[in-house]
Recover the amino acids of this structure.
């Protein structure tokens, strides 16, 4: 379930990059940042949050254990 | 001259870092130590050097230049798409490649492909395509160094001498320091980017009388569409999300993934990568757009005038005249012009050093090419067995000298635009090679013949796009020139900035066909042995 939700979040964030709704909107946020730029700066922050979720809930720890075990074995020989 | 002195001081520091790394190696002549820093990089150096490796001159100079001409769309096109795709691929692919490297001792992607698909010469074919796509980066790095030193010194340091100095410095610290020196220099450079990007933003903002005034002035001018994305089609915008797939397929990035001491060091890199991208690109893009509001810098006014003439009279002009105007309107030096106008001399020097740091990002490509040559060719074809590991490292060092001399010789003769174009193709080419990694790591059914089909397809399409763009001149800003249409659909067009296939950038069909070729050819051909598959997928 957790994995499915993460996959959905990844796919959703990919499509949210295509913000056609702000395409022709030149409104300034805080009086100086165009809304299209503000959205994509926020998008980068959302990407960092998603990466945190992936690292926290889907980290492939088994790969590290296997690799460490193999290199330990190698050292013994 | 003060900025040039600060830049020379910066060059001396990076040279010292390389030599310090050499002394740290304590005379070890082991390939794994020289080419991968003994797989021992800590979390801080790993994050900043991996990020720095991926930041070329384009991140600072090109992004602000692109934003100067096209507006805020630059950030969504190149930065936010990378902020999502690159860390995701590092998470999915980089970690797996690290684990396999640690387990089986791989030092290059081709070594992994050869082992995974039980192939020899197909690996050499992949090595060849990767190398050809990588060389323009090294050339453009030297050209960028020559141009920047010339600009910062006010013309006192000639282009040939500036290029020679940059080539010598990069060659020296890569030659002596290997991966350790390159990683430390990249870390130092990334800290410089981040620090001076913020300082530049504040200094220029204050100098312009505040960004609110500048942004509102643009909003109420005929240039208001720079604050929207009207100048770019949504298809083009979507296409760009395929380009960051190239990052993980670049050999220097993948080789870098092998240098982490522990896999857990990827965690911070994956999480902070999007924020680092934002911290570098947001000021550059914003300043590029705001530069349009500067009225008292003659060079910026000349660029705007060239852009205006191109837009109004471009359609009726000869292609050569259009190209001339396009060059005159290009804004790659707007950040430098803004600094010269608004920053005090000493600060302009420090910021110039930050820009040099971006321009000199070719170090990792030089080292990667040397690693690939010594491992994938020299060692694979018996050199290591016959002459030993110390000779292998010396061969790597000799290769670094030769490739730098070769790049410098070409940088003196060829026009820069050729290599800028080659880099455009290289991004698409490496993106089209990315299915190799995904198939090798995640699909048992993939085969060496599928890999060969992807490699040949990538090489042919990169050549085809290059020939097409050299044969059909770029039209004036506005609608594309349709070269081939079918049943009312525009199949192939020449756009002002490149090529479009069904309205998309060529990278989209290149990646999709690569995936299809990998699947179809692999289904039709023999799989590797079960014992090999078990080493990668268990069971």
């Amino acid at each position: 379930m957790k994995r499915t939700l993460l996959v959905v979040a990844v796919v959703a964030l990919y499509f949210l990059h295509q913000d056609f709704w702000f395409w022709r909107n030149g409104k300034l946020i805080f009086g100086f940042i165009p809304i299209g730029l503000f959205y994509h700066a926020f998008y980068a922050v959302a990407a960092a949050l998603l990466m945190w979720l992936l690292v926290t809930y889907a980290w492939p720890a088994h790969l590290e254990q296997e690799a460490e075990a193999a290199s330990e074995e190698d050292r013994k020989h | 001259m003060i900025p040039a002195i600060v830049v020379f001081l910066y060059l001396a520091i990076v040279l010292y870092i390389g030599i310090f790394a050499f002394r740290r190696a304590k005379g070890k002549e082991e390939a794994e130590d020289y080419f991968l820093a003994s797989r021992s990089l800590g979390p801080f150096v790993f994050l900043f050097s991996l990020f720095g490796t991926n930041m070329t001159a384009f991140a600072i100079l090109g992004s602000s230049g692109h934003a100067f001409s096209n507006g805020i769309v630059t950030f969504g096109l190149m930065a936010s798409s990378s902020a999502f795709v690159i860390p995701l691929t590092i998470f999915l692919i980089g970690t797996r490649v690290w684990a396999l490297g640690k387990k089986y001792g791989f030092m290059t992607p081709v070594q992994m492909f050869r082992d995974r698909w039980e192939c020899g010469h197909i690996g050499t074919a992949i090595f060849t395509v990767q190398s050809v796509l990588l060389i323009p980066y090294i050339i453009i790095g030297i050209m960028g160094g020559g141009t920047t030193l010339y600009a910062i010194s006010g013309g006192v340091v000639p282009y040939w001498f500036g290029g020679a100095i940059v080539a010598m410095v990069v060659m020296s610290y890569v030659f002596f320091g290997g991966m350790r020196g390159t990683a430390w220099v990249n870390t130092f450079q990334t800290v410089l980017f981040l620090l001076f990007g913020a300082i530049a933003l504040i200094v220029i903002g204050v100098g312009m009388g505040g960004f609110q005034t500048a942004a509102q002035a643009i909003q109420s001018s005929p240039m208001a569409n720079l604050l929207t994305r009207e100048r770019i089609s949504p298809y083009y915008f979507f296409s760009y999300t395929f380009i960051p797939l190239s990052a993980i397929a670049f050999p220097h990035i993948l080789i870098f993934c092998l240098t982490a001491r522990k896999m857990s060091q990827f965690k911070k890199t994956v999480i902070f990568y999007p924020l680092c991208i934002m911290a570098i690109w947001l000021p550059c893009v914003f300043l590029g757009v705001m530069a349009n509001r500067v009225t008292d810098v003659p060079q910026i006014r000349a660029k705007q005038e060239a852009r205006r003439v191109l837009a109004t009279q471009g359609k009726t002009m000869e292609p050569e005249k259009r190209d001339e105007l396009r060059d005159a309107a290009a804004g790659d030096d707007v950040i430098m012009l803004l600094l010269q106008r608004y920053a005090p001399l000493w600060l302009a020097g420090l910021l110039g050093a930050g820009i040099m740091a971006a321009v000199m990002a070719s170090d990792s490509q030089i080292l990667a090419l040397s690693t690939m040559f010594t491992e994938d060719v020299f060692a694979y074809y018996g050199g290591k067995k016959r002459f030993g590991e110390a000779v292998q490292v010396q061969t790597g060092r000799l290769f670094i000298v030769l490739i730098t001399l070769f790049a410098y010789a070409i940088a003196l003769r060829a026009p820069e635009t050729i290599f800028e174009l080659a880099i455009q193709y290289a991004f698409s080419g490496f993106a089209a090679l990315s299915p190799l990694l995904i198939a090798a790591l995640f699909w048992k059914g993939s085969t060496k013949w599928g890999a060969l089909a992807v490699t040949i397809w990538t090489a042919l399409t990169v050549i085809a796009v290059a020939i097409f763009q050299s044969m059909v001149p770029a039209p004036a800003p506005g609608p594309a020139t349709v070269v081939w249409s079918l049943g009312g659909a525009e199949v192939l067009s020449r756009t002002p900035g490149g090529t479009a296939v069904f309205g998309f950038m060529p990278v989209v069909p290149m990646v999709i066909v690569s995936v299809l070729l990998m699947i179809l050819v692999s289904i039709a051909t023999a799989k590797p042995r079960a014992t090999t598959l078990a080493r990668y997928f268990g069971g």
User: Anything to note?
Assistant: The longest strand of chain B covers residues 489-495. Residues 29 and 390 of chain B are 5 Å apart (CA to CA). The longest helix of chain B spans residues 159-207.
